[in-house]
């Protein structure tokens, strides 16, 4: 493969290959991180605003943000001020940080890092802290699949009465169940994880459900799995509507470019056969009359 690349002289951001080629970060996560790192230090732009500017949809943004948090590139703290107003503090870094390193970086201390092999040690760029006031006691944004997660919990409780939950418990546990669905789990897999090996007596259905949802949470799909997964073709993709006389539209799968369904083709063939039989019968009757007339003339 040929490649033409020129070094930029202005308006560029240095990004390590570790970020670009990260095996567990999706394309949206890499785009979100590099976009955020390209902003000037004085910019006060939250991750959600950056996702909107970068054209990343809500579900993809939530998944990308979770990936960045899991890999240590994003750290968040929720704090309540003296007046009861909640503040979200976000730390974005160009390298993975542990929770302790992130706290130290926020306080202004240098996080632990290996000493460069050549040259004088320099302070690494670990990102910037962004604060955004969202109002008094603002809750976290709801999970995009929270409603489906609640429906899944209700469906599980219908089959296993020992796991019946109160509406308040369903609302609290719905984001966890929704995360299962977001990671590709099916309702059957969720039901098996929650109902297999249940004890005879359950004192707290909500506590047991929460424990199993957290402890048995499936791993998020890797970027390679997401790229390899292709949506299945719909069952009606290669079907055609019959041009025959039907009360409702009739779909069929043609074999060699047919425009009529099997029933219409069979009916058409029977009508043609009746017409042929009638013509043959008329010809036979006409031949009998002609022969009778000839015999009468000979007498």
TrEMBL record:
Domain of life: Bacteria
Region (Disordered): 99-146
Protein name: Helix-turn-helix domain-containing protein
Organism: Streptomyces netropsis
Organism lineage string: Bacteria, Bacillati, Actinomycetota, Actinomycetes, Kitasatosporales
């Amino acid at each position: 493969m040929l490649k033409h690349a020129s070094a930029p002289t202005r308006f560029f951001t240095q990004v390590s290959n570790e970020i670009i080629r990260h095996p567990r970060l999706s394309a949206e996560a890499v785009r979100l991180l590099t976009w955020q790192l390209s902003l000037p230090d004085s910019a006060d732009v939250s991750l959600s605003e950056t996702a909107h500017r970068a054209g990343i949809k809500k579900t993809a943004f939530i998944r990308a943000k979770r990936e960045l948090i899991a890999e240590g590139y994003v750290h968040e703290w929720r704090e309540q001020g003296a007046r009861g107003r909640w503040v979200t503090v976000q730390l974005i870094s160009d390298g993975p940080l542990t929770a302790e390193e992130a706290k130290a970086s926020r306080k202004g201390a240098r996080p632990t890092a290996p000493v460069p092999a050549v040259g004088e040690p320099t302070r690494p760029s670990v990102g910037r802290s962004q604060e955004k006031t969202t109002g008094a006691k603002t809750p976290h944004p709801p999970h995009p699949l929270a409603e489906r997660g609640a429906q899944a919990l209700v469906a599980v409780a219908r089959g296993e009465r020992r796991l019946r939950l109160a509406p308040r418990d369903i609302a609290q546990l719905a984001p966890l169940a929704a995360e299962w669905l977001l990671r590709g789990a099916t309702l059957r897999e969720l039901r098996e994880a929650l109902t297999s090996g249940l004890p005879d007596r359950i004192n707290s259905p909500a506590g047991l459900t929460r424990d199993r949802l957290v402890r048995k949470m499936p791993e998020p799909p890797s970027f390679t799995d997401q790229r390899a997964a292709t949506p299945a073709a719909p069952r009606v993709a290669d079907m055609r509507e019959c041009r025959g006389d039907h009360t409702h539209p009739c779909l069929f799968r043609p074999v060699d470019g047919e425009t009529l369904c099997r029933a219409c083709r069979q009916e058409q063939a029977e009508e043609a056969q009746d017409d042929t039989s009638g013509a043959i019968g008329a010809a036979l009757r006409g031949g009998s009359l002609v022969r009778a007339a000839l015999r009468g003339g000979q007498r």
